Fold this protein.
Amino acid sequence: MAPSDDDFQAQLNDVSRKLALPSFLKDLTPSRLPSQAASDASGSSPKDRDGPAHRRARSFASPLHDTHAGHEPDYLQSFDAESLRLSVSLLLAASNVSEDGYAELCSSEEKARRAWVKMAATAAFSVFDHGHQDLVLAVDFNFFGTRMVTASSDHRVKVWDRRDDAWTLVDSWRAHDAEVVDVKWNGPFMGEVIGTIGEDGYFKLWQEDVTEIANSGRRFKLIYRQVSETKVPFMSLDFKNIMQETWIALVTRDGVLTVLEPVDHGNFSGEWHVIAHKQIIQPPPPPSEERSFRVCFHHEQLPCWTAIQAGLDRRALSFAVVAMDVVKVFRTDKNRRPYIAAELTGARNIIRDVAWANGSMRGTDIIATASKDGMIRIYELSTPEPSHAPSTLAAPAVQETQPSPRNRARNAPSGIGAGLAGASRIGDAVDHDQDPGRVKHAVKMVAELASNHGAVWRVSWSQMGDLLVSTGDDGAIRTWKKASDNRWLEYAEIEPYKGQ
């Protein structure tokens, strides 16, 4: 007899409470999400797991297992093996499954993952003519994976919709008066907004007007633009969203970092307040030297829980900035002033990309870099617990010593503001009178992977933060996974497309 919905909810709440204990959270691996694991494993016996209440909870917690809906959402791009292992472990505690049964389930999971990777390698690519008149320099997908934007040396940007397993052109327009070097979608909560940067020195925001005819060249309207203050073109941009709030990070080819926040988060065409404006490398590299500067936000809603426990503001912005052969990791304190929390070193040539993995509940931050020296490096950032830190996850309430930047911005002019005073100082892992909420991070390089790409150009994490994807000079796509002995191993390889 299946349990009632009330009985099931009581069991679910009990498991959720146990999963929230710090002692449990410290042992989590990158993609073991407690909310999903609790829902997948809270049935009291194997026969109960097929009950309607369990199916509802399972599909709510993990769209990957939503079989009764009749289709798999387009945005699912990773197979969540770590959460499955955790679910099985919790299930064993609630039932009489033997150790042999557990081993069989683990083996089945591994076979399923390999089958998924093989399927992705053979059937996931759509080859089509992008129609640009020059090299495509940047590509980005929206949050759901249903739309794609391409940017090219031909000065144009194109937006594509995925329909019936094919990509259909929505619109194409001249976005800059020079090469478009980077493009990003904003998050899903503020309409269809795209950010672009070009060699003409401009950063621009474009918003879709659905009343315009498709392929008219007028469907995406320019709503904001800003020129580089140093007259040196921007090299990289990224968006950060916390629900309906948005921030933008930009870095120029001479290493000037700018972080912007709209005065009114509902109006991107209005004034923008400058949170940070800082030269991140002194002196800037000479013009004859190859330059590499990139910026990447930590995209989750909350920072790592151990950093919050040590005093970091729950709403802190976190972003990693490539400065030639070093990555500087920034956080913002309780007054929204950025500071350098850690530096990632060890590269033997310039770093061409950086990616910050999701998984705040694991207790550490994981960042990967791609280097021209042919290596992929993975770093773990931990937060040493201060001796007098609070015993709960909640950060202590601290009264701000000055109005927040968001309130100050309503009377502040737009554009590039004053430099970032004291931004490079690393605070202690406790609140300061003048700089509350600054924490230190201990950095450890946990893997240095020979990529076989030649020079590595890009790295990217799966949504769950358990798979790393890389590409480089050889054109192949490689997937990396953490093994049970904590080594990072190449898991799958997709050969470059060899079409005509």
Remarks:
- Helices lie at 5-19, 22-25, 34-41, 52-61, 81-94, 99-123, 305-309, 405-408.
- The first strand starts at residue 136 and ends at 141.
